[in-house]
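> run fold Nodulin-like domain-containing protein
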Amino acid sequence: MVSLEALWRPRSRWTVLIAACWVEATAGLSYVFSTYSGALKSELSYDQRHINRLSVAKDLGDTVGLAAGLLCRVLPNWAVLSVGALLILGGYGLLWLLTDHHIPDLPFWLVCILIFIGTNGCTYLDTAALLACIPNFPSNRATAVGILKGFKGLCGAIFNQIYASFLSPDETSFILMLALGPALVMIPLIIVIGPLSHAELLQNEDDDVIFRLLYAAALLLAAYMLSVTLVQDFSSVSNTVNVIFTVVLLLILLLPLPIPKIADHLSRKRTEDDGSLKDPLLESRVDGSENGVTSKPTPTYVAACFMSLTEIREEKTFVEQTAAKGLSKLELAAADMTLRKAYGSINFWLLVLCMFFSLGSGTTAFNNLGQMGQSLGYENTQVFVSMTNIWNFTGRLAGGYFSELSTRKYGHPRTNMLAIFQLIMAVGHVFYAMAWPGTIYAAVFLVATGYGAHWAIFPTALSELFGLQNFGVLYNFVNMASPAGSLIYSGFIAGPIYDWQAKKQSSAVIDDTTLSCEGAVCFEVTFFIMAAVCVMGAALSIVLAFRTRSLYAIG
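> ok
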């Protein structure tokens, strides 16, 4: 079989980026738990409390990626991807054998471990994809990370669409698809994601054009998935139409395929144009010599000479070119950053606390979105979940684009933009708390967009401030701030307040599992608190920006 590496320009930066996007599109399996949880409940005779505990195991597996970070320090990317695919295959494969009754029933704690292993494999894919791309785009890190994280955010929508077309309503078979899908995707891509030489990493003026093409393809994918979701939520769609939807989806996913060739063509065209500008100037000089006339060098000839000298100077090493783009101070600061120094740095813990406040509050909002919609009288709460996925994706693209623009053009610290998106989330939480008619749509947009932007900005800031040597470990450590915050906010704020309001509304003493709350009071206090913690996160981001402003300053 012909590999993608043979079809594309071998080891191109763009080849690696696009392959990593497809890897990320299989690395968000934690987003589809609700699709197959019904099969676990019916086939294994579990109740809702069992499902909730399995959901916790799923969340832990998706965020506790320290092992993946440590392996990335000693193994190449292809090996880390292989380990991740095998963990997904093992975890979800055994879960399918269990739910399809091919093996005897297992203790509940062991099923929790299977869920943990399956989703934990995704952290290996995510970390390897980031580490494969971040060094390749030193001047566009946030842009590249935003695109990668955007594809991860759409993983759930992609898998759910394939399920709706070919497997629905067999949720057990969907678990088998989760086990096999990432492994099958890794087979052709694993040889593409490899290290590049410094010569292959040199940036050029066409990078922004290529990124615009990638953004266009990503936004088209998001718009298409939003349209399909709305059609499916508000009307009855036949299986034939679902199959057509899926075929179009797969074609859109293949749109970035020619981009490495386009980048190669633009690069060669620029080289040819530069050569054509110099040749006539040199020819005119030769013609003057043949006529026996010794003439002074013309201004154009002198300019041509200086152009050649400039081009010679532009043949720099990768590090020199990066320094020329204004990143030398950051690289110097992160050059000797060890794990011990990072963990002892105030800047690192400021970043962790920022993520604890903002990502934790966002995860809490998403986890309670269904209950929130029901308490406000909305019958179809699934549409809010679908909209959250789409706006989360859009936020990841926006966070990468605007933070890169702010940093490269104006020399602003990366976390300044993080503070802006945290304040956007705070406004969204206020809309949740007020619960006026229709404000839930605005709240979903603001919170999901701000939340998504974090996933493009914080990995980039982390790589700039603490280097790439230990990026995998540090990234997965900061990543744990999200479930830690959610655990505290949900367990000690959202849950108790909801139950308290539900008991106040109850006219009789009933079992706690049947308690339900109606009206804005169910989450009003919770989301005012969430807004406050987002403001605290923004304040810490500004403090971090102030501490690192000299590293980002231009000139």
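The chain has a mean pLDDT of 83.
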